[in-house]
Amino acid sequence: MSTVLKDTPEAFPQGPQRLTTAGWIWLYQPDPVSIQRLAAELDVDEDFLFDVLDPDENPRLQREEDHLLGILPVPVRRDEDGGWLLRPMGFILQEETLVTISTVQWTFLQDLFSRASTEAGSAGGQRRNLLRIVQAITEIYEHALDDLVQRMAQLEDLLDSTQSNDDLFRLLEVGKAALQMHAALAGNVAVIFKLSRHHRLAWEDEEKRRLNLLVADLQAVHERAEVLSRTMNSTMDAYGGMVQNNINHGLKVLTTLALVLYIPALMATLYGVNPPIPLQDKPWIFWVVVLGSFALSGLMAAVFRYRLRWI
């Protein structure tokens, strides 16, 4: 069974904490003291462990003497609005031991860690756990992309009727998340591919076959994220063009109304001044001016409406 070594008396998930089982050490929400302790125990550079705490850390794989150190960004839901963020998960491969470092309480890690505890003592535990982690990460990306597609469709329906700035900003957040996942998946594919070809891990034939399938699945998810990212860019450009067209149409309408009302305003101004003007003493001139002004305005409005289609 697993042994939980806590740095604080609170229950999980409060941390920092260190969970250990045969072939797997999980450092959760580490503080500087926990990181320095683990770095001294494994004889690894503690700078790598601190890099895992950086939320913007990029995926990578590096070798340090007898260790393989890697970082894989994993999607996690944002609490306030249900959006998606990427947070790094670090791992260290040392002989028959797998070490994972995370600042997020991923459910899949808890499940896999509990499963590994029941299989303690079986051969190939390090590689088997790593395969399960990669598979779980792939499924999380698939679920996240499904959610982004669904949210994009909902926001498009809202924008068709409202064109609200808030909906546009939410759509922009969806596009940002898709772009970040696309970039992260490209790095994850490279990391997993290098692991599948690394001689130190001594993959068995069945494990190598499974890992190759996982690389193919990750590549497919990466291509899907690329398509979604491009679709989001095209959608944002389209809505940006629609907003600009609506603004231009509004300006056309206002300009047309100003021109239509200009003639009655001009005639009223001319016949409202004090200097004498022609026919001002005729009683019928008022109706001629009024009816003539409105007739010309109506003619202009008809031209703008039916010929130019500005209104």
From TrEMBL:
Residues 138-165 form a coiled coil. The keyword Cell wall biogenesis/degradation does not apply. It is a multi-pass membrane protein. It is found in: Membrane. Its main location: membrane. It holds the Pfam family CorA. The keyword Transmembrane applies. InterPro entries: CorA-like (IPR047199), CorA_cytoplasmic_dom (IPR045861), CorA_TM1_TM2 (IPR045863), MgTranspt_CorA/ZnTranspt_ZntB (IPR002523). One of its GO terms (molecular function) is metal ion transmembrane transporter activity. It comes from the Bacteria. The chain crosses the membrane at residues 251-272, 284-304. GO terms for cellular component: membrane. Keywords: Coiled coil, Membrane, Transmembrane, Transmembrane helix. PANTHER family: MAGNESIUM AND COBALT TRANSPORTER (PTHR47891:SF2), TRANSPORTER-RELATED (PTHR47891). Belongs to the CorA metal ion transporter (MIT) (TC 1.A.35) family. This is Transporter.
